[in-house]
């Protein structure tokens, strides 16, 4: 069991406890523990999402994707416009930049 799983299990157990049977001091500690576990689990989930997004963003284009990008550009334009068109097509392939040009 990893740390995230242990925190999730602890949270589930704490959430099953009815605070009405506790002293005010115990109820405060119970509430603090639940809040801390929820925050830690949410932060961990956000970090995992960020890690996945960064990994996806850094993924290089496949040969097929490069070929598709190259073929998407009009070859009958000036060299300067062609260079920019290739760069913009690569940006679009990576999900960044203007989708229309």
Unreliable segments of 5+ consecutive residues: none
Largest sheet: none
What's the tally of helices?
A: 4
Topology as H/E string? Answer: HHHH
**Which range does the strand content fall in?**
under 5%
End-to-end separation in angstroms reads 49 Å
- Classify the secondary structure makeup into a structural class: mainly alpha
How many domains make up the coordinates?
2
The average pLDDT is 81
The radius of gyration is 26 Å
Helix content: over 70%
The shape, in one word, is rod-shaped
Total strand segments: 0
How would you portray this structure in words?
- The chain is mostly helical.
- It has 4 helices and no strands.
- The chain has helices at residues 3-16, 24-57, 63-71, 79-93.
- Helix 1 packs antiparallel against helix 2 (24-57) and helix 3 (63-71) crosses helix 4.
- The protein is rod-shaped and about 80 Å long.
Summarize the SSE layout with pairings:
Layout: H1 3-16, H2 24-57, H3 63-71, H4 79-93
What is this structure, in a nutshell?
The chain is mainly alpha-helical and 101 residues long.
What descriptive keywords fit this protein?
101 residues, rod-shaped, 71% helix, mainly alpha
